[in-house]
Amino acid sequence: MFHQTPLKTGAVLLLATAAVVYAFTTGFFGLELLTEVAILAIVAIALDLVAGYGGMVSLCHGALYGVGAYAFASATVLLGWGGGAGMAMAVAGGGAFAWLIGAVSARTHGIFFIMATLAFGQMAYAYFFDSPLFGGSDGMPGIARLDLSGAGLDLNDSRGYALFCTVLALLAYALAATLLRSGFGRTLVGIRANEPRMRALGLPVWRHKAAAFGTSGALAGLAGALAAQHTMYVSPGLLHWTVSGELLIMVILGGLGTLVGAVLGAGVLVFVKHEVARFTDHWHMVVGLVLIATVLSGGRGIFGQIEFLWGRRGARRPEPAATEGSPDHA
Amino acid sequence: MTADASFWIVQTLNALQLSMLLFLLSVGLTVIFGLLHFVNLAHGSLYALGAFVGVSASAFAGSYWAAFAVAPVAVALVGIVLYVALIRRMRNAGPMNQVLVTFGLIFVFLDLFRLGWGDIPLGMAEPDLFSGRTEFLGIVYPTYRLFIIGLGLVVLAALSLLLSRTQLGAIVRAGVDNGDMAACLGINVERVFFVVFCLGCALAGLAGAVAAPVLSVTTDMGTAILIPTLVVVVIGGLGSLRGAIAGSLLIGFVQTFGAVLAPQAAAVAVYALLAVVLILRPAGLFPARG
Amino acid sequence: MKLSRTWLSAAAALMLAVPATAHAKDYKVGLLLPYSGVYAALGKEIDQGFELALQTRLGEMAGSKIEIVREDTEVKPPVGLAKTRKLILQDQVDVMVGIVSSGVLGAIRDFVHQSGTPLIVANAGNDDATGARCSRFITRVSFSNGQVNRPMGDWLYNKGVRKVYTLAPDYAAGHQMIETFSAAFKAAGGTIVGGEFTPFRTTKDFGPYLTKAQSAGPDAIFVFYAGGEAISFVKQYASFGVADSVPLYGSGFLTSPLYVNAEGPAAKGVVTSLHYVPTIESPENAAFVKAFSAAYGHAPSEYAVQGYDAGQALVEAVKSGATDRAALAEALGKVRFTSPRGPVEIDPATNNIVQNIYIYETVQGDGTLTQKILDVAKAVRDPVSGCQK
Fold this sequence. Notes:
The complex is a heterotrimer of chains A (330), B (290) and C (389). By secondary structure, chain B is mainly α. Chain B contains ten helices and two strands; from the N terminus they run ααααββαααααα.
């Protein structure tokens, strides 16, 4: 069951503060990294929603993210729509595709669910890779960012865009937290805990699962639209199953089923990868070893471990513990 | 296209050859899952390891057969290390943690291959015994591919006998059916698990050494073969030998004839097939248990 | 490796030879290559070639120092773009060099163009990069996909080949290479009797395609494959015995010296076209092969020479007196020099290189396979297809 504990609130506020401070103190490349973290955090939150709370471990969130990016790109570049309509299209596209996957795969569990999502994700990848309409393997260039100059915001400025993505990541967190506290979220957790019982209670389980997966996909689609605007370019690589794998790494690293952990995991993975890559071309190995160590050490992840220790120690201020792994150390 | 009988015979052999390669890989993966309830995404990396070790062994000894002998043993030894260090602890950790740990292993292996064998793709020569082509039924076919088909059938027969006629086989079947019950009956399931895991790794290594002369040996070959192998295992039904056979044949034939008849759809065909099977039969075509 | 910043100081090395100019400009170069991922081997070759060129021609830059900042694209377009922004905005490089994958080039093109930073492309061959999407800031010293294959159309027809079957991986480069060849071959009077694009990097077994190609009854097969796919293809082609009835031709990457020895005897007799082979007989090439082999312990590939010429082009631009980004871009669009691959120049209309294309056969040499040049198409220039700089 999800509770927005004071520890979680404190951690979110701390991470948000760290992001803002970082945005105003770092250089151009730091802003690139911050934007990447904020965007990936949204997909990681989306993934934690279904994997951590709904028990639906997905290997297609990279594909949902990519579908969102392509939806934004096609709406703005091919159809000539505005940025706002493009964002809506991305959310709808990611959501619809995810709902479909969720509805079709609702009967499968465990490794079979993972494989089903993998299959659907790879189908989407293969489709975009071969599709001349969307630029095939070369992808689609020429994507413009949302025009918020009416509100006095210049998103073409790196800092402006990084902060914009950070705000959206915060909103995504708030949305996910609200959803999980609602009756819908409680039912979702109930299905994970005991699906036959929920079914016996007369609940249309598949419809619930599909709705949850669709919501998650809509969030992933939103992140995809942000990624498309960040790079101003989309390519099929976004949809590859290894991207989904890396997203799962983020969620596990930060702490599955904690929501805050998803954000933390995105930050830690991006910054660790970057720091390691400065010293060696073999960063794959370091990331792999970190992942193995995380799972072996109990699998709670960073924030899960913090919550665990916090629970044992009783009530104290959350700040000292929550700073670990926040992006401001880089 | 002049589609005469010999054309279709050759394509059928192509499909069988691919099926047998997939079978060598998927049978280990599926039995390990059925018995240990362990999802090993690094199975593809073990296959790649077999290929790399094979290239070095055959270059060192100057003979293909060195690769054939050394690769399965070397990969089984690595399997022992993995089993002791990781797998044993991860058995009850749930599919997601297993997926993640072995995903991490893929990354580690990837860089180990780069460090050990460099970034440039490698190749390996066919054995003299099976080089060239064989003529039969009015067709000409590469002898080495016939060897792969034959080897696959031999392994298939051996595994069937092992499972159906030996005590180890009976224990494995009992373990797949109900591991707890088997343990209650005084069977040392732990030791059987260990043996089965090593055997699965050895088969992956063998597949790598057998595939190396046909394909190129690259650092990403393990990740590339992983997905088709997983598809085979899931379509067939996790843990089932019959499922691995059926899945391998299905994928081998769909890929080959998809490439011949509908090349544009070939890339998507396999995934579509997996999706359909999962929707209609969520536990695969031949589930290991009811 | 990526952290390494290399300083090459002409002043220190040649204090006596060149009277050091008092205010020689120092240049900062962003070297953007894949140091991990599937193209890591290519990135390394280009890096080595580039560094060798700067070392060799250090003395010609009148006391200028060149600092190299290396970044890894991981062969991922979004990563490539993030690193490009870093190099241009944060490191403030004067010029960028590298780019192996056309996907990465497509992703960074607009940003590079808008920022007005000169980019020397050292591999990515997408025709559009010097065609419809060309930029006066982007100069390509490697090749274009069309350029490498166009001469083979005429050449094959003149050898008496009339019917050709084509095969290539199903991605942009595969399509461009095959389409250019097919157009040239048809223009010469030949017929394309069939062809297939195989799923990119997922096709391990070419058996079904080879059987199909054979049954189409062509005089020859023309293919483009590179890296691991090239090795698999050439070996499987040989094992099916297709070589006896239908000879294999292709784009020269098929039998690149970088991995031709992994193909083994199967590659013998395959005839392909490429912009460089290590066996070109010229004093420039002899010196280059010698220096490269001495420095890195293996013979250079076409990728190494691309890196080397990226360095040479930079030196030429610096020698012309260009100091800022705009002037460097301007100068790069006009350079001409003698490369190990023969005389080369940049076509001011497209900013693509004009160079010889070598038609060569892979033959058995002393223990290893080597390249025997059969023919040379001189000064091959791409048509100006939609490029408005």
